Amino acid sequence: MSIFKRFIKQGQLQLMVWPGVIFMVIFNFIPIYGIITAFKHYTIVDTMSSAPWVGMENFKTIVSDQFFWQSVRNTLAISFLKLAIGFVIPIVLSVMIFELKNMRFKKIVQTISYIPHFFSWIVLGGMLISWLSTNGFFNQILMALGIIDKGTNHLLAGNQYWWIAVLSDLWKEVGWGTILYLAGMSRIDPTLYEAARIDGASKVTQVRTITLPLLGPIISLNLILTVSGLLGSNLDQTLVLMNSQNQDYADVINSFVYRMGLTQGDFSYATAVGLGISVVSVILLIITDRITRKLNDGHSVIV
């Protein structure tokens, strides 16, 4: 059968696939050509072809830019805190939800935990700015408990920003992060738990010996995606919560690129930074995949 006849025979499937393929080509592959901007001195009056080549000059500037390295420090600090806290808690929460026997209460807990995910950072950021202000909800609670005597604006304290970013991101995404784990646990054979109970295994033992090992591939996949995105801290969150007082702690790589490219118009330098970070992220992806491959008896969860 010729390719054309096969295409006609699979017409309905082709109609489903090709819009996605075209979308990816237009918005994911064609823009790759713009990478050459990193090796040129491009300004708003230039075209891609007319801008003069500068070779590795933009990358040499990165090495000596203290503000870039400050953004790297903030990005790594926030991302590692999110990895340490935000990666484990969704697993714990999903296990707790899965063990609930009252289905009505289980649905209520799931719904409440999912809701923040559907709000934009503009909405949640506005709430946080209000709550963390001098007379905000958070300070009112602390003063009522006698922990502090006078309220302060916590978003103006730069040394508190990392924890504010981590905990607010956890609040927004922890419920949504349980979906994959709950789906995986729903496919576990219940007879395994019954056999474990007959043998006298406690709930903790059942989770440790049955649930977590069978969730291994999903946990590994999430770990790979999380580690590969360590340098891609949340831009929306940063732009909403960052101010002139906490910028030294809040400015991350994405906001640095945004500021250099769109605010200051240094498109070549911003592209060079973005390209360098993308290369490092791919390296982290490969390293994490190799590690998880060894933990899963040589099987990769990506391919």
UniProtKB/TrEMBL annotation:
Q: How does it sit in the membrane?
A: Multi-pass membrane protein
Q: Which InterPro entries match?
A: MetI-like (IPR000515), MetI-like_sf (IPR035906), UgpAE/MalFG_permease (IPR050809)
Q: Which PROSITE patterns match?
A: ABC_TM1
List the transmembrane segments: 21-39, 76-98, 118-141, 161-183, 212-232, 267-287
Q: Which UniProt keywords apply?
A: Cell membrane, Membrane, Transmembrane, Transmembrane helix, Transport
Name the source's superkingdom: Bacteria
* Places the protein is found: Cell membrane
Q: What is this protein called?
A: ABC transporter permease
State the organism of origin: Lacticaseibacillus mingshuiensis
